[in-house]
Amino acid sequence: MVYIESAHNDRVRAWARLKTRRGRDRMSLFLVEGERLVGELLNSELRLEALLWNVASDEPPAELWQHPKADGHRFELSPEAFAAVADTETPQGLMAVAGIPQEVAQYGHRILVLDAVQDPGNVGTLVRSAEAFGFSEIVFGTGTADPYAPKVVRASMGGLFRIRAISGDAVDYLSAWRDRHPEGLVVSTAADARERCDEAPMAGDVAVIIGNEARGVSDGVRHLAQRCVSIPMAGRAESLNAAMAGTILLYEAYRQASNRAI
After folding, report:
1. TM spans, by residue (predicted)?
2. What is 110-261's CATH topology?
């Protein structure tokens, strides 16, 4: 157990840099805030670098603080030191530093491709939905929010810890995926598409593409899609935001696959 008083401590300053993408990329580490997410992390296969407790807060839950993974990685921080690391304005008393896993694309059977989805809340929600509906891999294409940014991590609600995250060029990845899954289907979205999402055959191998919040799917990525679908709506809304639309498509693919398995 190590106690750290100063917010200017070298370890504290290094952890605080994980709030920036440059810091995360350089150290291959990211922050996890809050008891629930820390619990999800400890029960995942990701590496724990440090478990941080604010000494001014309530005692941390024993099942987390005494978790076998935490042996040799527990740090007690003063309120000032803890606040220097935390990304939230009113942080909970427990936080963790975790290792970013090595990216190894496996071109799974059911994947999600994010094409310049910029809002961290949208990205985190889509991670959560993809994991919930049985997708094995997410491609964070150029211009997409960093999957390990604190806001994305929080919005993913632990889904990020259980799914492969690949950062890179979406066109290159989709081209390779299509080569490996010649019978698979690449599905894109557009508000004016004539085919409904529940009409596209998504029960088998499928790559679902979600585009930028303002511009939609880029031309280079769209050219690799075999089907472009819309989401049927009864109301007057012209469109749904990226997280909502993506979640509906992911669920539809899950529904079709589940029905086929029966």
Report:
1. none
2. Alpha/beta knot (3.40.1280)
